[in-house]
Amino acid sequence: MKLVPYRRMNDIRPMSNMLSLFDNFFNTAFDEETSEDNFRAMAMDIIEQDKEFTITANLPGFKKDNVKISLHDNQLVVEASCEDKKEEQKGTVYRCERYSGNYRRNLVLPENADLNKIVAKMEDGVLKLSIPKKEPTPKKEITID
């Protein structure tokens, strides 16, 4: 998760000090992490219906071969990797906002989720997961002797 530093309003100087505003813009424009281990969370909708949970995740530009879904101790892990390396140098780059890296999302599933019947589909950069619900197990009463 990228943390954005808090900047107070009094950091913006009067017009007489306009050059410091430009310097500040160019000094902070490149503050984003460029680490290869930089994982970002993907945008996701989670909807509970009567018989199932539906998860929809936006993964624009990703192919289904680059998406991995796994289960670990009732925890659903969705990972996607994207490598878009272009070594074309035409002019000076001031800002590069196209992301190349890894996305990861961990979700703890409720106990009534049927982990053996999860269905995943991916179409046009949208991943859809359908997780059916199990019938609740009846409570077991213990008689006192």
Would you give an account of this structure?
The chain has 145 residues and is mainly beta. Mean pLDDT is 76; it is low at 29-38. The longest helix has 11 residues, at 18-28. It is 8% helix and 33% strand. It contains 1 helix and 8 strands; from the N terminus they run αββββββββ. The strands form 2 sheets. The protein has a 4-stranded mixed β-sheet, with no helix packed on it. A 4-stranded antiparallel β-sheet has the order 2-3-8-7, with no helix packed on it.
Core attributes:
145 residues, mainly beta, 4-stranded mixed sheet, 4-stranded antiparallel sheet, 1 helix
Task: Put the structure in a nutshell.
With 145 residues, this protein is mainly β. It has one helix spanning 18-28, and strands at residues 39-40, 44-48, 52-58, 67-72, 75-82, 101-108, 119-123, 126-132.
